[in-house]
Amino acid sequence: MGSGGGGLLTDARGRRADVARQVAFNFVSPGWFALYGTALLAGRDFAGTDGPRQRRVAIVNDAYRREASPQDVAPGDVIHAGPCGGDGCTLVGIVGDSVYGNSLRDTPPPTVYVPLAQASGLRPEMPFRLSIRADGDHDHLARDVRAALNRVDARLTYSLRPLADDLQAAVSEERLVARLAGLFGAVALLLSSIGLYGVTAYSVTRRRREIGVRLALGAQPREVLGAVFARITMAVAGGTLAGLLAALWLGRFVAPLLFGVGARDPTTLVLVTIMLAAVAVLAGWRPASRALRVDPAQVLRQS
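Above: the chain sequence. Below: its structure as tokens.
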């Protein structure tokens, strides 16, 4: 997880590409893509033979292939983007996109990968990251890594932490925003349910006299309930339709806050609609059922 480097984006033949974005680059060793599960779409991975005295090679991601040139970029072409200036690098592979940038929501930029063994111009104080996949005891692995680094140079400074910690740090702000948005959404849904229940119950209670008259004239309770819920259904349907249209239109404003789910997620919209409909049915059922259980004459006298 990092911002990578930057440079002018050129096409496979060295011409400056007509795009506003910059190319990111990274120096990696053989096996790096397999370690992180990055798919190899074409060509090959870096090999141990790609040394400093061999011809310079590079691998690009799929975003580079899409944006660098109107023609297809294929293994065997020579690119001059990022660290491949001068004579350029021979393209040996194309891999899937990976996240680089300050946010996981950022679109993967065009990226050039160069073998670490062929990197030039690296300063001694530049930080490096050693990635290790472990299936066993992480504490035991940490001790082995420390011992190996100390054998290389006892003056090296380093820190060890799992990739999960980096991921947690990268999404900490997004998680906070998501929790706050979820809390506000739950409060809004609760207030909407309470308001819907109150308005519906009050409307049905005001019709107790009408219900008593209908029962006194011989109407069946089932028919009375059907008439009550017909009005409730019309009101709820109208409000639900207006709410769905507003949600679809306003969804674009919350889309940047979402990750892994769309702003117009049909499952969310359906569940909220079902919940509000259930609240409306409950709000109309309870006062209407109480009115049906009393004597019609008593209802008329109380009215």
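Residues 132-170 form one domain.
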